[in-house]
Amino acid sequence: QVQLVESGGGLVQPGGSLRLSCAASGNIFKTDTMGWYRQAPGKQRELVAVVTSGGSTNYADSVKGRVTISRDNAKNTVYLQMNSLKPEDTAVYYCNARRVVLGVVLNYWGQGTQVTVSS
After folding, report:
1. CB-based contacts of 39: which residues, under 8 Å, 6+ apart?
2. How would you write the pLDDT of the chain (119 residues) with one tens digit per residue?
3. What is the DSSP letter of 54?
4. Which of 49, 62, 84, 103 is the Cys-Cys partner for 69 at CB 3.0 to 4.6 Å?
5. In this structure, are residues 90 and 40 in contact, taking their beta carbons and an 8 Å threshold?
6. DSSP secondary-structure letter at 86?
7. Measured on CA atoms in the order 39, 40, 44, 50, is the torsion positive or negative?
8. Neighbouring-strand partners of residue 26
9. Count of Cβ atoms closer than 10 Å to residue 49 Cβ
10. Where are the beta strands (DSSP E) in 1-119?
11. Strand 46-51 with 33-39, pairing
12. b/e for 9-42, b at 16 or more Cβ within 10 A?
C-alpha cells in the first residue's frame, strides 16, 4: 500500500500563490507517475498536472503557465506550485500515485486538501 498525505491548502486571494505538498510513504515505487487532481463542488475530478519518474510533465490547459509540478524522490514528496490563482481554481486537490503492474493500472489517492481562492 501507498499512503499519500497532502498539505499546503488554504484560503488565498485572487492573484495569490500556494504550494501544495504530497508526502508519500509505504510501498513507494520511484517509477510511479505522480500527479495532482482537483474536484470542485458539483464537478468531476480532473487532472491538474502529472510528473513521470523521468521528470516529464503534463498540465491541464486551464493551469498551463501558472502551475508547476515537481518531485523530490529523495524525500518521497511531490509539490504543486500554483501562482496567479483564480476563483475557478477553488477545489479539493488530491495527490495521486499511479503504477502499472502486470498490465494493471493501480491508483493511490490522498485524502485531499482544500484550496479556496476568494477575496
Report:
1. 45, 46, 91, 92, 94, 112
2. 899 999 999 999 999 999 999 999 888 787 889 999 999 999 999 999 999 989 999 999 999 999 999 999 899 999 999 999 999 999 999 999 999 889 999 999 999 999 999 99
3. T
4. 49
5. yes
6. -
7. negative
8. 2
9. 23
10. 2-7, 10-12, 18-26, 33-39, 46-51, 57-59, 67-72, 77-82, 91-101, 104-109, 113-117
11. antiparallel
12. beebeeeeebebbbebeeebeeebbbbbbbeeee
Site of grid cell 510501498: 27
Q: Is the separation of the CB atoms in 36 and 69 below 8 Å?
A: yes
Question: Tell me: the pLDDT tens digits for 9-24?
Answer: 999 999 999 999 999 9
For residue 42, give the DSSP letter: T
The pLDDT value recorded for residue 17 is: 98
Q: Report helix, strand or coil for 15.
A: coil
